């Protein structure tokens, strides 16, 4: 369970043996994408992704639960290439709402702690924010700023409990009581982001506009209002996710062929795009 260690901690700690992250995903939630492999040499980590109650599926993608134990160990920096989603994050150090982070996201983990997150579908957070989701881009705000004091009982449960069933029930209860009926724009924003993710032939904003039957300006306004980032950003980010997945698989990519598959002009453009976001080249990222 989240927050619990496997053994009692003595006053003087020996280094914790290295162990892979314990991962548990509901089939509908799927495994994580966009995670840059930076597994530490030691420590205990857990990552679970759970589906929300069915009545919440039109605006919550999934819940995520992470915990770590790095006591008496060096801090660890976890890195990801974020998705076009807003997250509500509940943790002892302070709960918050995080807008779409457009650069590489880095988080320093130390000691022992846990977090419970709510990943909203693209467009799904618009009715809570009551402002363009782009106004939250690259920002993190206290969770009370969005939900008010009504969020306090849920926050208390999610921070204090290490029982997954209790946490899930509390989250489902709160959000079911605050659910909003989806409108056509919410559905469209979600569908178009999913299209970009699932269809590699959508390589440009022109491609997406043609598939959506919208003008480019209308598409830009829709994404700014509901997804929080531009359609070009989403296309670029999901193609980089695919590159990371290929590298993480352990198979040596053919970068020239992969650049064409992902819609880049050539291999150099793919490598430069990756380096500009991640900070180093795909070759430097590959595990040795």
Protein model, in words:
The protein has 288 residues and is of the alpha+beta class. The chain has 2 domains: 22-177, no CATH class; 184-285, Arc Repressor Mutant, subunit A, CATH 1.10.10. The protein is built from 11 helices and 10 strands. The protein has helices at residues 126-129, 143-147, 152-160, 164-177, 184-198, 205-212, 216-227, 231-248, 255-261, 267-278, 282-285; strands spanning 22-25, 35-36, 44-50, 60-70, 76-80, 87-90, 96-98, 105-109, 111-120, 140-142. The strands form 2 sheets. It has a 7-stranded mixed β-sheet. Strands 2-5-8 form a 3-stranded antiparallel β-sheet. Helix 5 (184-198) packs across helix 7 (216-227) and helix 9 packs across helix 10 (267-278). It is globular, with a radius of gyration of 20 Å. Residues 1-19 have low confidence and may be disordered.
Mean pLDDT comes to 89
Strand order of the largest sheet: 1-3-4-9-6-7-10
The outline comes out as: globular
Instruction: Please give the share of residues in helix.
Output: 25-40%
Helices and strands, in order, run as: EEEEEEEEEHEHHHHHHHHHH
Number of strands: 10
Class from helix and strand fractions:
alpha+beta
Low-confidence spans: pLDDT under 50, at least 5 residues? 1-19
User: What Rg is obtained from the alpha carbons, in whole angstroms?
Assistant: 20 Å
Estimate nothing, just give the exact number of structural domains: 2
Taking the sheet with the most strands, its summary is:
7 strands, mixed
Beta-strand share of residues = 15-25%
């Amino acid at each position: 369970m989240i927050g619990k260690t496997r053994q009692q901690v003595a006053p003087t700690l020996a280094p914790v043996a290295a162990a892979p992250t314990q991962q548990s995903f509901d089939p509908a939630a799927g495994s994580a994408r966009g995670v840059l492999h930076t597994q530490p040499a030691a420590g205990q980590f857990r990552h679970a992704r759970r589906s929300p109650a069915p009545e919440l599926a039109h605006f919550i993608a999934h819940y995520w639960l992470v915990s770590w134990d790095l006591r008496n160990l060096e801090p660890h920096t976890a890195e990801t290439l974020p998705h076009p989603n807003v997250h509500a994050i509940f943790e002892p150090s302070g709960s918050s709402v995080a807008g779409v982070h457009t650069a590489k996201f880095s988080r320093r983990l130390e000691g022992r702690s846990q977090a419970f997150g709510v990943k909203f579908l693209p467009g799904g957070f618009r009715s809570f924010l009551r402002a363009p989701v782009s106004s939250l881009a690259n920002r993190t705000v206290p969770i009370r700023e969005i939900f008010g004091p009504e969020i306090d009982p849920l926050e208390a449960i999610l921070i204090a409990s290490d029982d997954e069933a209790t946490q899930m029930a509390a989250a489902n209860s709160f959000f079911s009581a605050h659910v909003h009926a989806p409108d056509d724009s919410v559905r469209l924003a979600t569908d178009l982001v999913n299209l970009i993710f699932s269809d590699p032939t959508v390589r440009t904003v022109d491609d997406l506009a043609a598939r959506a039957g919208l003008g480019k300006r209308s598409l830009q306004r829709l994404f700014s209002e509901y997804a929080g980032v531009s359609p070009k950003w989403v296309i670029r980010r999901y193609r980089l996710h695919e590159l990371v997945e290929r590298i993480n698989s352990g198979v040596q990519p053919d970068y020239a062929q992969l650049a064409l598959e992902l819609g880049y002009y050539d291999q150099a453009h793919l490598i430069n795009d990756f380096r500009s976001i991640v900070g180093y080249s795909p070759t430097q990222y590959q595990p040795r």
